[in-house]
Amino acid sequence: MHKLFTLICSAALGIACALAPAQAVRLKDLASVEGVRANQLIGYGLVVGLAGTGEKNSDFSEQSFRSMLNNFGIKIDENTNLKIKDVAPVVVHAELPPFAKPGQTIDVTVSAIGEATSLRGGSLLQTVLKGIDGNVYAIAQGSLVVGGLGVEGADGSRVTVNTPTAGRIANGAIVEREVPTNFGSSDSIVFNLNRPDFTSAKNVAESINELFGRNTAMAQDAVSIRVGAPRDPARRVEFLSVLENLDITEGAEKAKIVVNSRTGTIVIGSAVKLKPVAVTHGGLTVTVTEDPQVSQPNPFSMGQTAVVPNSNIDVREKQGKMFKFDTGTTLDDLVRAVNEVGLAPGDLMSVLEALDQAGAIEGELVVI
Question: Is pLDDT of 283 > 60?
Fold first, then answer.
C-alpha cells in the first residue's frame, strides 16, 4: 500500500510539472500550512565586556548584576555602590522555527534597554528565552556582532553610525523544548493563502482535485483550502511534498494605486485603468523676501535711528497643461502623460486624489 501511494504521488508530481501553466506560482509560495508556524521567544539578560559603554546608573541593572553574582555564591553588601559601566541590561528575542528540535540552534537579536551607548565587543551571558506560555524553549549565550558604531568626545560631541545598541548572535541559542503541534492529528490539512483571493482558492482546490480525484480538496473561503491527507507521518510528508510543488494559476490582483504620503512613493498596479477625463494642473509659487531699511533722523532733531521693515512678495503661476484620458487608459498611458507634464510626486498625489474623487479611476486608491 505504501509503495502504491508513493507511485501515485510520483506520477502526480510528474503530471503537475508537465502541465504547469505559464507564469504559474508554486503552492508553497502562495500559501502556508495551518499550524506550521514560527513562535516568538523573549528573554532578559546581561551583556558584559563592554569598554566603558555600558550602563551608567540604573537600579534594575544593578539589581540584575547582584542577582547574577548571588547565583554564583557571591554576596555584596546592599550599601555598596556598584560601578558597572562595562555591563548592560538587554532584551533578547528570537523566532523558534516550526518543528525545531532540542539541541538545534537559532539566531538571536540582542537590544540594550538602558543607558548603554554601545554593545560592540560585548558577550551575552546565559539567558533563558520564554514563549508566550511562560515555558523556557531556548537558552542563549555568546559574543555579539554589532554593525553600528558610536564615538563620543569629551566636549559632548558624538558620531553614531547605524545602531550600536543592537546586535546579533548567529546560532546563539540552543533549543531546549519542542513546541507541540497537531500536524498529524487529523485526517486533513488546511492551506491558508498569503493573500485572500477567491479565484486563487478555487484554482488551488481544482488543481489538487485534478491530480488526486474529486472531493480531495475544498475551498472554504477566500483564504483556506481543506485537503484530505493520510495520517501516517511519512505518507503525509510525501503528500505535502507533492502539493507544495504544485503549480497554481494565481488570481489577478485587484486594481490598486498605493500612495505613501510620507515618502512620496507612488505605486500603480498594472490593472489600473482610467475612465474618460480631462486633467489640468498648475503650480502657484509665492515668494516672500525681507529687505529692512534703516531710517535716520534729521540732524539736531533729537530723533532715534529706526529699522523699517520692507517686505517684497512675488507671486508666479506656472502655465498648466491639460491632458485628456480616453476610455481604458492603461498604466503606460498614464505614466507617459505624467512624464510629458513633468509632475512632481506631490503634484501627482493631488492629481490621483482628484481623479479618485471624480470617479475616473477603475481601481482602489490607497493612501498610507
Answer: no
Percentage of residues in the chain with pLDDT exceeding 90?
25
Span 171-183, average pLDDT:
90
CB 303 within 8 A of CB 297: yes
Helix or strand or coil: residue 3?
Answer: helix
Given the C-alpha cell 539541541, which residue does it identify?
Answer: 103
Record the pTM: 0.67
Contact 203, 184 (CB under 8 A): no
Cα distances (Å, whole numbers) of residue 244 to 17, 41, 105, 107, 205: 12, 28, 26, 26, 13
Amino acid identity, residue 164?
A: P
Q: Report the pLDDT value the prediction gives residue 348, as an integer from 0 to 100.
A: 73
**What per-residue string of b and e applies to 158-189 under the rule 16 or more CB within 10 Å gives b?**
eeeeebbbbbebeebbebeeebeeebeeeeeb
State pLDDT tens for residues 258-276.
Answer: 888 777 777 877 777 777 7
More reliable by pLDDT, 74 or 93: 93
Element housing 286 (H / E) = strand 284-290
Q: Which three cell numbers stand for residue 43?
A: 528573554
Q: Are 110 and 144 in contact (CB under 8 A)?
A: yes
Asked if residues 222 and 202 have their Cβ atoms less than 8 Å apart, the reply is no
Percent composition of the chain: helix, strand, coil (DSSP 3-state, to 5): 25, 35, 40
Alpha helices in the chain, H assignment, sequence order: 2-18, 27-30, 59-71, 198-212, 233-244, 331-341, 345-357
Q: Which residue has the cell 477566500?
A: 222
Burial of 235 (0-12, 13-18, 19+ CB in 10 A): middle
Q: What is the pLDDT of residues 70-79, one digit of tens each?
A: 776 777 766 6
